[in-house]
From TrEMBL:
This is chorismate mutase. The lineage of its organism: Bacteria, Pseudomonadati, Pseudomonadota, Alphaproteobacteria, Sphingomonadales. GO terms for biological process: chorismate metabolic process; salicylic acid biosynthetic process. Its EC number is 5.4.99.5. The keyword Isomerase applies. It comes from Sphingomonas adhaesiva. Keywords: Isomerase. SUPFAM superfamilies: Chorismate mutase II.
Length: 93
């Protein structure tokens, strides 16, 4: 016997997870283009000022959305670190 309420919640979670994956894929397509541009323009792979501004912006958005800002910062930091890794690889050619 299945619990229909739980089943509906899980379906919503599945839909949200699918949207998150699609959004992350789209974000990484754009950041890969940024990395290629930085490599051809001889710009550094990392931009600490931009990173800190983004983290501050995301923390504020998280508070407004009633989401733990610490979690949001960790999540964004993970993404930023991965993007920087891709940019460093692009700079090496």
């Amino acid at each position: 016997m299945t619990d229909e309420v739980l089943k509906r919640y899980r379906k919503s979670i599945d839909n949200i997870d699918a949207a998150l994956v699609c959004l992350l894929a789209e974000r990484f397509k754009v950041t890969q283009a940024v990395g290629a541009y930085k490599a051809t323009a001889n710009l550094p792979p990392a931009d600490p000022g931009r990173e800190e501004a983004q983290i501050a912006r995301l923390r504020a958005l998280s508070e407004e959305a009633e989401l733990d800002p610490e979690f949001s910062e960790k999540f964004l930091r993970f993404i930023i670190d991965e993007v920087i890794r891709h940019h460093q690889a692009a700079a090496r050619g």
